[in-house]
Amino acid sequence: MISPYYFDCEFRQKLASDSVDFLAASYINGPQDPGIYFLDAQMRWQRHYSPRHGEAASILPEGMAVPVVEKTPNSPYPQGIAHFWDSFSTSRYHPDYALFYGRFKKMVLVFMFRPRSNVIFFMSPSGGGMQPDARTANPAWDWRIHLSGLKPNASASISVRGVYKQYKSDADILDEYRRWVSTCGTRLH
Residue ranges of the domains in the chain? Predict the structure, then answer.
């Protein structure tokens, strides 16, 4: 934890094969706006809300091909997929601005990744369960990344910065991202 409102995480895994997957989920307790926000390829903020669990859940970076997803028998999803995140939105985010956020009351929760990290954002409108009224669902704001072509027995890692603070503006979030990226030794294009 870095005062006053940052948390930096490094996910590291020793490899048993030439690939690894990292993913994380954030269950949000009844936000007024359950959607997530990201920058598209034209640098415009876009809102994404998956209407049903397992429908258009994942947002890819611009230029990434939609991954091949094998169908699975007895799938709970109409597309026949094994995991709800294997459904893809037609929206794409700017690959140099690998960040997304969601809002809770006056606060904002931002997830930031290094540019061109090929992270995939995804969300579920009900992944966090139901409110006690049994009518309101809690969303999940999630991310995942697949790294492949690696040397077995090596280590793979990904760095993530989280920000939880009072929401000021989209421009403030973009400034936070640019400042963090500059400390990572990475340049934005």
Answer: 6-183
